Amino acid sequence: MRVLIVGGGGREHTLAWKLAQSSRLEKLYCAPGNPGISKVADCVDIAADDIKKLKNFALQEKIDLSVVGPEAPLVLGLTDAFKESGLRVFGPDKKGAMLEGSKVWAKEKMKEWGIPSAGFAVFDNFDRARSHLSHFYGGPVVIKADGLAAGKGVTVASGPAEAEQALYDIMIERKFGDAGSRVVIENCLSGEEVSVLAVTDGKELVFLPSSQDHKAIGEGDRGPNTGGMGAYSPAPIYTDDLAKKTEEQVFRPLLKGFNQMGIDFRGVIYAGLMVAKDGFNVLEFNVRFGDPEAQALIPRMKSDLLPLLEAAAEGNLGGLQAEWKNDAAVCVVMASRGYPGNYDKGIPIEGLDRLEQSGDRQVAVFHAGTAFKDDRLVTSGGRVLGVTAWDSDLPGALKRVYNACDQIKFEGCYYRRDIAHRAL
Ligand code: AMP
Ligand code: GLY
Question: Is the pLDDT of residue 152 over 90?
Answer without folding.
Answer: no
